[in-house]
Amino acid sequence: MSTAAQAAAPDPAGSPATHAAPAPARNPVTQAAHTAPDGVVESVAFAAADSGTGGLTWGQRAIWDAVRKTVPDDHYFNFGRVLPVPGRRTVAEVLEAVAGLTALHGALRTRLDLSGPEPRQRLEAAGTLPVLVTEENPESVLERLNAERFDYESQWPVRVALVRSGDRVTHVVLGFCHLAADGLGSEIAVRDLRMLLLRGGRLARPAPPRPLDLAAWQESAEGRRVARRAAELWEAVPHGVMFERAVGAAEDPPIWRARLASPALDLASRALAAAHRTSTSTVLLAATAVLVARATDQDRCTVLPIVNNRFRPDVSRLVSTLSQEGVFSLDGVDRPLPQLLRGADAAAMRAYRSAFHDPRDRAEGSWVQPLACFNDMRFADPGPSSYAPAEIEAALAATELSWPLRQSKLNCRFCVHVSTSTTGTLEFSVTADTGFFSRADIERGLTELERSLVTEATGTRQVRFETMT
Predict the structure, then answer these.
(1) Where are the stretches annotated Disordered (predicted)?
(2) Does one domain contain both 312 and 389?
């Protein structure tokens, strides 16, 4: 939902003003390098024309709340991108482009001020960014960049590494703090970095908006009206926690993730989307809702999908965290899947509209908190398509289940992540507190969800999800 599904706009009126600062000047590169066990660390200086302090945006507040609840395992929220470098570029040329990117997007030079009663953001005009230069595999470098938590007050919210072969840089690796960007925000940064590489470190266009500008608009009268409309959608949902009762002793550590890499689930969700005129994201969200409801023995399921909130033209170029939780509530989960999907479409639209909200309203009110979320992290929904039943069934042989993560703390008890691997395979992951949803439940839930959607897509029989025992 944060990327694959677009939210319905609450109201485009009164949008935040675009920051009109001049394009940053060419940045000098500081060549004071020192060696590290895995390469050389260069330093690149950046300089921009603007600075300032202010409150957090709604998206920043939401992710900061999640980060605080996950410490010391908050590296969980780190993520990154790998950019193949176009043409032949030296280290100095790529460092100049990195400096230009940091100057261009205020989020990449913004840190937190935690000295007061509420966190504030502090935008710096200039600074120096450490950049690792190495010859290691880019994916391994990205994993290492994301392995450590950020110091939100002192460290820049982006980590950078250059992978080189001889005198040529082949890849730029960016590790993002989630306070600085979400998935689509990182995509904007990567696109702009590529253009800076192609154009010698400069972009001749107006500066993009900044998180500070959005935060100021959200505090305005129009921003408060938008927040109030979203709050009304949350307040209409009955209270309930989906994973309220412990099922037994938790594993050590308690948080585990299982990842189902499933070409069959990809084909089945696309076939069902075509058959029922919906998106694959809605198909997978509805299936998740049924899994959760059956696992918790409830007829109504409430799940919080992560919505990208990039429906406003004024934030289309904004590097920041805009994605937030919406509220998705679905009754009658024992209905056949075709009927569920009709209800899910309307419930998903309400969820998109509720996501652009002020987390302070949520904290001060008595909004539902089901402790279950759904995050479709794909940059685009692959769209509906028809497949022969035999093709879908045959794809089951390629399914793989792995356990890529375990840790001590998480801000949720049940989280679904939908993504696409580097080879194009659909990955459907469940991260759960094993005291409330055991490892056996996780594995059984994933395999039953896959089999149920495949069975429905191939027309073998009309499916009702089985109650988990």
Answers:
(1) 1-33
(2) yes
